[in-house]
Amino acid sequence: MSTHIFLTLLLFSLCFMVSFSHTLNNGFSVELIHRDSPKSPFYQATENKYQRIVNAVRRSINFANHFNKDSLTNTPRSTVIPDKDAYLMTYSVGTPPFKLYGFVDTGSDIVWFQCEPCKKCYNQTTPIFNPSKSSSYKNIPCSSKLCPSYTSCNDQNSCQYSVTYVDESYSQGDLSVETFTLESTTGLPVSFPKTVIGCGTNNTMTSSQGARASSGIVGLGDGPLSLITQLGSSIDRKFSYCLLPYESNTTSKLNFGDVAVVSGDGVVSTPIVIKFAFYVLTLEGFSIGNKRIDIRGSSMDVEGNMMIDSGTTLTFLPSDVYANLKSAIVESVKLERADDPNHALDLCYSVTSDGYNFPLITAHFKGADVKLYSGGTFVPIADDIICWAFFSSDDLGPIFGNLAQQNLLVGYDLKQKIVSFKSMDCSKV
Ligand SMILES: *[C@@H]1O[C@H](CO)[C@@H](O)[C@H](O)[C@H]1NC(C)=O
Ligand SMILES: *[C@@H]1O[C@H](CO)[C@@H](O)[C@H](O)[C@H]1NC(C)=O
Ligand SMILES: *[C@@H]1O[C@H](CO)[C@@H](O)[C@H](O)[C@H]1NC(C)=O
Questions:
Q1: Fewer CB within 10 Å, N side or C side of the chain?
Q2: Which protein residue has the closest C-alpha to ligand 2 atom 1?
Q3: Is the dihedral of CA 420, 400, 303, 150 positive or negative?
Q4: Which range is least confidently modeled, 137-141, 230-234, 260-264, 424-428?
Q5: Given this model, what pLDDT does residue 209 score?
Q6: What is residue 249's predicted lDDT score, i.e. its pLDDT?
Q7: How far is residue 20's CA from residue 193's CA, in Å, rounded to a whole number?
Q8: Domain coordinates of the chain in residue numbers?
């Protein structure tokens, strides 16, 4: 993309932000809804807590199996997101506001949702947005500076976007400007007029069946059309989240602006390397209890070697690194091995009493030793079985997934290009 387009968007953001600054003094937060939690349109009251984890794991692996590595190398813009359907947020578009659910994706750089009239839409359980009913909706003409060079033009001279994901899901349609409204957790709506959005009239979601209840994707990646870039100066290019364990009854939060700053005792920070729209960190090793496993000499021994992603459930590692970690765990855990009845995860244990302490896993990112919450690294998948929630894949990843990020406040500061971590009980923020 050209710098020119980027600057235009930035200036554009600056102009419309001014009038909203009073509501945004300290930033704001929105709810981040796990797709299987009670506030989600996917919620199945009959599912128990094990099924929720089992289903999430299965989706994650299903994605890995659909992953088409060639599409990633051939088309850098086909960004792409491992089972991008873990967390949802609600937002409204248009005038009057029309409520939608979007999958939040730190690996995607555009906000798109299904739009009428559909040429081809997937089955969405909530109503589909109809731009003809909104007074603030405008297609972007191809001649506009807002129409990026990688787009195409239709016979009405309207800018057409197209995104393809590595699992071969895609969305195509009009690139448009529309009022985008977030409902802050304080109950105050925060509106952003003239946000560039993709109004998708030709969409599929391949690997995840459940994706169908969502309207589309809210990209929080780094790119000119991502929500973070478009909210721009008003949030100082900062956002954070704190992901709750699945069994929690409260909702996780996604914070923007000043409230997203991760500060205080125990904060550690590591540089971000941006690859395509992804946020990539540099992992130097793991510790299993006190035993350190260095990645030096392994297939991950490069700068910028692990994507951090809120949408991916499991943590994916290449087979050599995975094998080293696995043997350290096998050495350390004194429990009887068990088989995963779902044949998904390969290191599981029989747990007969509650009291067993699994070893603490520490991720050593460059400059940041991050202690991982053990309830997210070793997950219960049945009454008496707990499994290690990492997965070996030489095609997909490496990815630092959302189970491993539970009970961590994770802050992205795109100005300083760092990600900060702080261990905490996410139900208390
Ligand atoms: C929808 O997009 C797909 C993928 O690019 C394309 O093959 C198909 O022809 C499009 N369908 C319509 C109705 O435009
Ligand atoms: C679409 O979803 C609804 C609600 O879940 C369901 O009743 C309907 O059968 C689905 N239609 C198709 C074509 O999948
Ligand atoms: C969550 O809610 C359920 C039902 O309301 C309750 O039984 C359970 O104890 C609650 N769990 C937590 C962690 O608060």
A1: N
A2: 123
A3: negative
A4: 230-234
A5: 53
A6: 77
A7: 10
A8: 28-256, 262-428
